[in-house]
Amino acid sequence: MDSVSSDEVYQDQILPHVSRTFALTIPQLPAGLRTAVTCAYLLCRIADTIEDEPALSPPETLAFLQRFSAVLAGGNPALLAGEIAPRLSDRTLAAERDLVCNMERVVAVLAQLNAPQRAAIQRCVELMCLGMPRFQFSASLKGLARSSDLDDYCYYVAGVVGEMLTDLFCDYSPQIARHRPALCAIAASFAQGLQMTNILKDVWEDRGRGACWLPQEVFTRHGVDLSDLASEPFDPRFAAGFRELVGVAHAHLRNALDYTLLIPSKETGIRRFCLWAIGLAVLTLRKIEHNPRFTAGVQVKVTRSAVAMTRLLANVAGRSDWMLKVLFAQAARGLPLARLADLRRPRPAPVSFPEEVVGKPEHTLRRSYGNSGT
User: Fold this and answer.
1) N or C: which end of the chain has fewer CB within 10 A?
2) Of 95, 84, 99, 86, nearest in space to 50 by CA
3) Spatial distance between the Cα atoms of 328 and 315, rounded to a whole number of angstroms
4) How far is it, in rounded angstroms, from Cα 158 to Cα 164?
5) Is the pLDDT of residue 4 over 80?
6) Amino acid 248: pLDDT
């Protein structure tokens, strides 16, 4: 077995240990996409592991992220992995540690991809490494100030992935590439729907770690100060603001369905890759809507039987746009629906450190990652 094949085998072996969802969905993709998408996900996961490591100070985290981004453009991954791995605490999962230690193998797979695939993946990782620290370093129980800040946050942790996948899909298929402008217009929105679903599901766990990704301006309209929020006793004012955000997530997931329907129906694997994630996110929003008093994400987690049914229905209806629209309407029935503002891409900006953050020894926040159920 040559080294490239061996590295690809490593990717396939580590994937289920760092993501249950992508371990299910990536194998649905056509062979021409699986290796690239697996590589892309694992590189994003390495960046996420660096960002989440509590033993690193904020300046150290930023420096490692910048160096990781540079590695993809031709740096020394083994040297960087050798510096990061000893700094990882027991808060980092064993599989994530293994992935960091084997960074060189994933980078080797990246180097063997074609030029458009490499460019798409490198752009995604570069933007993630630039944007994530802007929010992680200032995270607190006060939440984000504005809804536009939530949009920006979702863009850097998920939207850039949606744009990358669009580039990979278009490179794979000339038929898909014909729809590139329409796909690009809503790719980040698709990803935001999935990310917002995770944020809403994990709101109480995130608060337990000292973070809140909800926008204060939404809750100000209902007389709620997020910094004083508690899961109990139940506050109907908070529930009203929370329901608004469910409506926003629902609107983004409608864009996700529109995105999927732009994929030619013969591309059943790519459609399944999208539809399974959309279906699970919608069902999660349904559970949140029906249980506004939930105090832990496990209380609104989609059951195994619902996961199996979602996969079955998506597979059966995957080639029929009409059936997919009907299934989505039924799954989303009763959910609030917001009207989205004009979709925009955040403008990347340099990361600066507040004086009170620089030198702070602990960075204890962990973020909900990617698709619902990862």
Assistant:
1) N
2) 84
3) 14
4) 10
5) no
6) 96
Helix (H, G, I), strand (E, B) or coil at 296: coil
Angle among Cα 123, 24, 124 to the nearest 5 degrees reads 5
C-alpha atoms less than 13 angstroms from C-alpha of 62 in its C-beta half-sphere: 17
Of 43, 202, 195, 191, give the one whose Cα is nearest residue 123: 43
Each residue's pLDDT tens digit, 192-250: 999 999 999 999 999 998 899 999 999 999 999 999 999 899 999 999 999 999 999 99
DSSP 8-state symbol, 142: T
User: Given pLDDT bands bounded at 50, 70 and 90, which one contains residue 358?
Assistant: very low
pLDDT of 343 above 90: no
Closest CA to 110 of 74, 81, 62: 74
Asked if 108 and 3 count as a contact pair (C-beta separation under 8 A), the reply is yes
Domain definitions of the chain by residue range: 1-114, 138-340+368-372
Residue with structure tokens 């590589």? 39
* CA atoms of 144 and 160, how far apart (whole Å): 20
Among candidate residues 31, 19, 22, 96, the one with its CA nearest the CA of residue 267: 31
**With b meaning 16 or more CB within 10 Å and e meaning fewer, what string describes 101-120?**
ebbbbbbbbbeebeeebbeb
Q: How many other CB atoms sit within 10 Å of the CB of residue 41? A: 27
Whose CA is closest to 156, among 351, 362, 317?
Answer: 351
CATH class of 138-340+368-372: mainly alpha
pTM: 0.90
Task: List for the chain the helix, strand, coil content (%; round to 5).
Answer: 70, 0, 30
